[in-house]
Amino acid sequence: MNKNIRSLLLWPLLFSTTITYAQKADQATLWLTKADRSALFEKQKDALTFKPATDNGFTITIDDKKTYQPIDGFGFALTGGSAMHIIRMSPDSRAALLKELFATNGNNIGVSYIRLSIGASDLNEKVFSYDDMLAGQTDPTLKHFDLGPDKQDVIPVMKQILAINPAIKILGSPWSPPAWMKTNEDTRGGRLKPEYYGVYAKYLVKYIQEMKANGIPIDAITIQNEPLHPGNNPSLLLVAPDEGEFIKNHLGPAFKAAGIKTKIIIYDHNADRPDYPISILNDPAARKYIDGSGFHLYGGDIDALTDVHNAHPDKNLYFTEQMVVEKENSTTINIASPVKRLIIGATRNWSRNVLEWNLAADPDYKPYTDRGGCPMCQGAVTIDKNAVKRNLAYYSIAHASKFVRPGSVRIASNNSDTLPNVAFKTPDGKKVLIVANTSDSSQSFSIKYNGLAVTTTLDKGSVGTYIW
């Protein structure tokens, strides 16, 4: 046969083969944690292949044409205690742990958001501020301001983290002003004296400036951790009218005068009091300085975040703290619970982030302060000298942090009581679906996207992150 004629006869076949290859069904990868611990955030070997969709039981339908809030990241609080344990590790062990936590390649989990305490939290060895004075003394010019103990652990650890991920978001939260600024002159409880509102605003300005001078950019601050819980040590009672007054007449103008772009986030407490942030945002003089509201979930319902969104849809929402604990040496892991309540619950209610409490503790949950510290706060990792144990909080954040990178946006997916889920589109166009099986039995279901579907199964209590 003439060579040219044979080529012409073969051309339709070659063209058809090319078209078939281009339309080959997408594949999804699955990272899985099983309640029986047989898989702990592990990539599954077999890819899942999307095929033309058919009616086959319950289906989670993904619609990336309908979008919600952008995502800033997922992570933990780097308390002073966390930093203390990390800095005491050998250089090689510390570098390996920080890479695992903050890098995204391989099996690293890509933590992208960190919360720091401004001064001590209740998970420090001792209580301190950046301007402590002897009893009866004051420092209204902040002459003695100094980052002090943070220079020994928080700052060097943060510098190593920033070397791994220079774009990580950092939130700062104070547990208490210096005691001399307070009505009871104590680190625990009391209220901020009105005559020191302006001084305390300058104190927070100096914190941001000093951290920046150390190479640590503070993206946002909250005004007060748990402002309605004055029983912690340290702590402060800061009711909504006082917080609004402080922002509109002192902190906001101080930020503006200093040229500070750090975001101001209000409330930073439980979901049982959405009226607190709403009342402050109702004041135009305060709201012009405010980026959004922060929430914990030790009380109330996560749906309260949507109430705040509906009242002020132009303001952002953040999930800034929740302790996640598992029983030591348990043969099972209750992964579905925090993923449903926090990763899925907060983001389905407009939160731009999810932060869990806290990054690291030792086997005895130390350190914590006296007179109100937390003796049961388990770390995402337990550090015993150079040995590292990964706990429930670690795996629950990993299911989101590795793949739902900053700049992702939440997209629509239909929810279910027994298969709660949330979906995202990443900056590079990938789709990420996080599903928790909260039922008492294994469940099969389909994931439908653009007319194609894949069928998969999750054992009871398991969590899967699907990426395509």
TrEMBL record:
Source domain of life: Bacteria
Residue ranges of every copy of the Glycosyl hydrolase family 30 beta sandwich domain listed in the record: 407-466
Entry-linked InterPro entries: GH, GH30_C, Glyco_hydro_30, Glyco_hydro_30_TIM-barrel, Glyco_hydro_b
Domain Glycosyl hydrolase family 30 TIM-barrel: 71-404
Keywords assigned by UniProt, alphabetized: Glycosidase, Hydrolase, Signal
MF terms (GO), sorted A to Z: glucosylceramidase activity
Record-listed E.C. numbers: 3.2.1.45
Signal peptide: 1-22
Family, similarity comment: Belongs to the glycosyl hydrolase 30 family.
Name of this chain's protein: Glucosylceramidase
Species this protein is from: Mucilaginibacter lappiensis
